[in-house]
Amino acid sequence: LFLYMLASHVLGSVWYLFSIDRHNRCLRESCRGSGCNQLSLYCKDQRGGNYTFNEAYCVLTDPGEINSTDVFNFGMFYGALQSGVVQSWDFFPKLFYCFWWGLQNLSSLGQNLQTSTRSEERR
User: Fold this and answer.
1) Is 75 exposed, middle or buried (0-12, 13-18, 19+ CB in 10 A)?
2) H or E stretch covering 96
3) What pTM, to 2 d.p., does this model score?
4) Helix, strand, coil % (nearest 5) of the chain?
5) Taking all residues of the chain, what is their mean pLDDT, rounded to a whole number?
6) Are 83 and 97 contacting, i.e. CB atoms less than 8 angstroms apart?
7) In whole angstroms, how far apart are CA 36 and each of 24, 43, 46, 47, 54?
8) Residue 65 near residue 110, CB atoms below 8 Å
9) pLDDT (0 to 100) of residue 51
10) Which residues of 42-70 are buried (b: 16+ CB within 10 A; e: fewer)?
């Protein structure tokens, strides 16, 4: 039982880190598509430049409802972004949500995940 609980914590924390990466990747792809300066995503760039990017590309849309490539597919990380866990500063809601997610997907062996077509989710 202890190893099962520990494994769900590890799985949930890895999922949380990859969900941050997926959101970051969406912003970078949107920025690259509109020609903005990617430094503006991480810090205030004092040198000037184009800071606009296509905000409609990173709209949270359920993976089952995406019909075109005009919207970024967050795949199995949609739940983390929809719940607000990634944007939140509160530690305990993050901890418990990621633990719950890891426990749920460890119990079902990940069969309830809606993955995208990205290779990272297909391995």
Assistant:
1) buried
2) helix 91-107
3) 0.74
4) 60, 0, 40
5) 75
6) yes
7) 15, 14, 14, 13, 10
8) no
9) 57
10) eeeeeeeeeeebbeebbeeeebeebeeee
